[in-house]
Structures are given as C-alpha cells and as structure tokens.
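Thread: zinc ion complex, take 2
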Amino acid sequence: MNQSRECIECKQIINIGYELCQICFDLKSKEKKYGRCIECKQINMGENWCQICNSKRFQQEFNNWTSGNNDVDKFIKNIQLSAKNYYQLLEWIPYERFYKIVYVAEGGFGKVYRANWKDGYISHWDTNKHQWRRHSQNRNDFVALKSLDNSQNVKLEFLNEITLHIKVIEDKLSNNIIRCYGITQDPNTKDYMMVMKYAKLGSLRNVLVERRKRLHKDKKKLYKMNNFNLDLYFWKWRYKVRILECIAAGLYKIHRKGLIHRDLHIGNIVCFRETTCITDMGLCKPANYNELENNIYGVLAYVAPEILRGQNYTQASDIYSFGIIMYEIISELSPYHDVAHDPYLAGMICKGLRPKFNIEVPPLILHLIKSCLDANPSDRPTAKLLSNKFQLWLEDLNKYIKNIEDQVESIKVEFIKQIEEAEKINNSSSASNLTNKLHPEAIYTSRLLNFNNLPEQKNSDDYYKNYHNISSIEYSDLHRKLINEAPEFSWSSNENVSS
Ligand SMILES: [Zn+2]
Ligand SMILES: [Zn+2]
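Output below.
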C-alpha cells in the first residue's frame, strides 16, 4: 500500500495524512501569524520582522561600527544576518551609550553592573522613517552589564554563553531565559561585557531572603488575628508554584535544545514582577559535549551525587538541582543550612542524605521532589514532565482562588485537598519555624568541588515508602568528627577555594 503523497506546495514526498511538508507547514503558519513584508512581499519570520530585508539593512551598517576585535565583529554580524525576530538580535553597543553605571554584585565568573541605556533595543524597521525603531527607555529601565573575568582575550566561553542565550530564546514567549541585547566593552579594563535585561528584584535567593524577613513579621500578625485563614495559604502556594513553573519551563527550553545547564541554583535564577528567568548559562554545554577536564564547578547542595563522584553531567543532573530548588522554595529553608558543606556532607549525600522538611508537605509535591532527587539519574522525571505538571497545578490554584474571590463553591481537586490538609497540620503544630540560621561553613556560591573516594550513590532504603520527608537518613555530627579524624572522603586537592 502507498503510504506517501506529495506536499501540495513543494511537491516533496511526505507521509500520508498530511497535506504539507514540515517546511511548508511552518512557513504557512508564519504567514498566518506575521503576514508578509510590505517591501519584498516575502513571509515575515517574526513580528514585524522580514529576515531578508533586515539582514540587508544590517549588512549596510557593517562598516559603521567595530568592536575592535575581529572575532567579536564576525560573531555579531552572523547573528544579525540570521536573526528571525528581534529577540534573537545582538548589537555592538559602544560603552558611552550607557549612563549611571552602578556596581551590583560579584558573580561566579565576573562582575555585574546596572546601567541605563540611552537607546533601548531594536524592535523593528520603521518603513516610514527609514530607520530602526527602538523600544523607548525611561529612567527606570535598566540593563545589566555582566563582565566575564579575563574576557579581554574574548574567551570562547564568553561568545558561547551569548550563543546559547540566543539559541534557547526562540520567540517572545520564551521569557524564562534572560534576554541578551548585545556586547559592549569597558574602556578602562578592556573587559567585554554582556548587555542583558536587568532583573529588578534580583536573584531568587534575594527574593527568598526578603520574603523570609517579611513572613517573620507577618507571622506575628497572623497569630494576633487568632483565626486561621486558609485562603491566605492558597495565595502563598500559587506564588510558589508560579515560580517553579517558570523555572521548569526555562529548563525545558534548555533541554529541548539538547543542552545541559550544569550550574543551576537559586543564585542564578533572577526574578521580575511578572516572571522568573534562568541566567548564567556560562557552563551550559551540549549534552554530547566531551568533557576535557574533570573539574566539577558548582554549589555542593545542588550538585547530583553522581556528579560529585566524577561522572559526566546529564540533563538528569540538572533535574536533581531543580529538585533542590523545589525543596528550597517550598520549605523556605536553604538546603543543608545548618551543617558544613564539606567532603563529609558530599559523602552523606551519596549515602542517601537529602534536605529535611520541618513542615507537612502535600504528598504530590513531596513525591515529585523525591523523584527529582532520586539517586538513580534514570528514575528522575524530565523537564517537560515537570513543566507540564506545574502548569496543571498552577491552573488548579488559579481556578480555585478565582472561585474563592467570586464566592463560588467549587469541587476541590486532589492538589487543593492536599494543600488544605497539610496547612491544617502545619497551623496546629508549633513545630514549624522559619529560622534559617546558616552554619559558617554552609557555602552557596559556585566553587570547585573535587572529592576523593566518595561512596556509591544510593537512596535511603524506605525512600518511596516514607511519606513525611524526603529521606530518612540522618546527618550525624558525631559521625563527622570520627570521619575527620580518619578521613574517609576528602577534597582531592587544595583547590576548594570559594570564588
Ligand atoms: Zn512542502
Ligand atoms: Zn522584506
């Protein structure tokens, strides 16, 4: 039997059941969505974006600017020629186009500044004025300037990081990966800098710390109110599920492109009022990338046990990091905040130790965290599954909260019932506390983590039978002291300096 036919547009042979080949189908849907260019009549590739006309326009300007470095020039030019929408565009931005440049923070790899950009990013070609139309900036619109250490020589990593940003951002909706507008150069240090969207609320770590302080105050108030208001808890859960939904969606976008982030933790997730974005893709590499050096670089608490033991990064090791982030957002505690982040902790994690909840958590949430933190990488869920799950839970919460606001009685789905049950228990027990006093050796910045002699990774024996916490393995300080006297696992060298 004949299982194929011709594409009605290009006559290419395709599978039966379809009218168009994939290429023609994509073009048709682009035409429907973006229309045709009024100048050359070709199909627009993005909103107000004719790739053919725009790449000619950029080409005509190639002689009007230079970064002073051939590689950087070539890199930017290529991206300008291949941009299919303004989101994928990159510009050389002279440093004098920025003003009010303020130092913000030292990142894992370099410094971050906040600045105002006089021009704003290009949104489309203005056919009446015959010039680029830019997104108008006001005093409160900031960009982040991120330098990479030793980028004068334009290390490959610098350009790699930018390429990845552009590769992952496919359209306007990809707003869970931070936008990169271009490259500039500090005239004094000669360091190249990435020009990026500035996250007003800072990193997720800052947001959680601020929230903890506020909750501490509010909690006293809540006690005074004397009656337990369950509706408030649903707001809290919506807030948390929304953040997790954004991170899972961003991670899915990275994984869908065959990439691995490799350094996912709350310090390189940034928050805006409307969304949460993954950033710091400097270590992000294709899944088939051959690891030349065996250095592990990261934050111990977020690194999967198999990676601590020197195995190669996989997408499943990113999922483990996501599991820790999930724990952190739900528990409002930093993972392993009360112990030293040393080789002993690394060894305990391999033996099945996981962070502990001191509150009751809905079983659906607890089970998902457990599967992300499973010692066996192949038993962890995919980013796609996580993203879908959080979307559904967010819908459940939105629906339920809307019904509360409209004072409509609604049927409670399982997720809502579980939140209610858990919060009733938490409210009646005084056990839950929000103290997050950090051990002086609990370190949450990325550093080299090379260990010797770590044991084979495993789950606690009752891992999936225990419904109250992630793992039943206890951290014992006494044991640590014994180990320290006769070190079983250790740093492999003296490189364990925090950066
Ligand atoms: Zn076709
Ligand atoms: Zn055109």
